[in-house]
Structures are given as C-alpha cells and as structure tokens.
Amino acid sequence: MRRYALLLVASVALAGCGGGSSSTPTTVETVQLPTTARAGDPGKEAVKALIGAAKSGDLDAMWGMASAESKKRVGPTLGEFKSGAGGELADSLSELGDYEVIVSERLTPEFGIVAVDDGDRVYALPLRLEGDTWKLELGSPVQIRPLGPLPGKTEAVVAQIGAAVEGPGGDVNVVMYLDGSTEQPQVRGTATNVTTFANFEPGLDPGRHTVVVAATEGRQAGATAWVFTVRKPVGTPGSTGG
After folding, report:
1. How many structural domains does the chain have?
2. In degrees rounded to 5, what are phi and psi of residue 27?
3. Which of 111, 119, 168, 212 is buried deepest, with most CB atoms within 10 A?
4. Domain range spanning residue 173?
5. Does 33 fall in a domain?
C-alpha cells in the first residue's frame, strides 16, 4: 500500500436494496488516506506470502491469511476451504511465473487492492484491514466482469476500456488501473449494477496492456484483472494483416 496515496475514485451512491433503472450521476473525488502503522508495503507483503504459500501447497497458511468475512464465505471450515475455493486459488496462483506487483493501493479505510503481473497474465485481489493486518478478501459478492477489450483479445484500435460491477448494493467506489497507473473512469448504474469505463484520445499505443478494476460496495470489495493487446499497424515491423 502506498503511503498517503492520492486516489481518483469514481463514486456513485446506490440504494442498499430495491431495483429501478434510473442512472445515478457520477461524482469524482480525490481521497487522501493514511497508511497503517506497519512499515513497508503491506499489500505487497500479503500477496508475496499468499503466492509463496500457494506454490508450496500450504493451504493452512492461506486459510490463516483470509479475512474473517472470507472464511464465512469460502469455508466455513479449513477442510471445506481446502477442497473448494482454497484449492482452486492455490492451483491458479501456483501457475504464476516470476511476477511484479503492478498495483498496491489503499482504496478506503477498510479495503485495499493488490495486483501482480508475470508477463503472461495478471491477478488482482482485494484486501481487508483487520486490526493492523491486511487480510485476503476471497469469495466476494462484488463481481467485476470485463466488457472490453475482452481478456486475451488483440484489437486494432482501443479507445475505451469498460467493466460491469454487480454486488449487494450500497455506496459504490470504483477505481481502474491501466498498465499500473490510476485512470479516472466514468460510472453509471442502478441499485446493484454498475458500468464503469475510461475513454482514451488518442487510442492506446500498440502492444500488451494490463487492466485492474477494483470496487467497493459498503462493507464488501471485489477486484479483477486482465490482459489485452493492441495490434501494430499493418506495414510496421512485427505486424500482421487481417
């Protein structure tokens, strides 16, 4: 987590229950948040410990890193965690190669986001602050789905990145990162469904790009990350037609 990070957070106030299709105006705030008393980067420390445990198959350690809310959702017992969400997470993270932390930020007083990139794929995970320790937030009811460019796709031109956020309702905060840098997305939505997007003029440069999207809804948080590629113009070295 960066110390006293300045985040441009696109916020939309949503009702906690009920439906409706009217869009809610977007407001953009600059939020200054202090770090915890712990030194260093606790987000980076947390994901390093998690990946290390996954690669060694230490699901007991992974269980200990999960937040109390997560344990209720993906457990509630260690045995159920190992046979379900924990085993799946360990399998996924163990496939990561040498990686770098591309995002580590505090989003709210309670939640943070950390994401890693191994040059092939990216992985993002929300963190929940319990006392003075950042815990892993697993099985979140806040679900984020890429809208475009889709994961793994190669596009000729990319001038917009979008994602859909679904959750239990509440005050929604969304933050988007392109290639590790904070963007200022627009947000539109209803009580439990939000669309967030960022426009780029001119379009993005050719090459590989990473996207990380994190969202909080009240006392819940979710995150996702993906990779896409912008194709080089036809006729340039390394480009292909079609």
Report:
1. 1
2. -125, 145
3. 212
4. 6-230
5. yes
Q: Is 101 inside any structural domain?
A: yes
CA pair distance 155, 134, nearest whole angstrom? 37
- Alpha-carbon distance of 125 to 144, in angstroms, equals 12
pLDDT, tens digit only, all 242 positions of the chain: 543 333 333 333 322 222 233 333 333 333 333 333 344 687 888 899 999 999 999 999 999 999 999 998 888 889 888 888 888 989 989 999 999 999 999 989 999 999 999 999 999 999 999 998 899 998 899 999 999 999 999 999 999 999 999 988 777 889 999 999 999 888 888 767 889 999 999 999 999 999 999 999 888 999 999 999 999 876 665 555 54
Contacts of 193 (CB under 8 A, 6+ apart): 164, 165, 166
Residue 200 lies in a domain: yes
Residue 242 in any domain: the answer is: no
CA 73, CA 195: separation in Å to the nearest integer? 25
Which CATH number covers residue 206? 2.60.40.1220
**CA–CA distance, 136 with 133 (Å, rounded to integer):** 10
E strand map for the chain: 6-12, 27-32, 100-106, 111-117, 122-130, 133-136, 143-148, 154-155, 160-166, 172-178, 181-183, 186-189, 193-199, 207-217, 220-230
As given in the structure block, the two tokens for residue 29 are 């705030």
Query: Quick one: angle between helices 85-94 and 42-55, nearest 10?
Result: 100
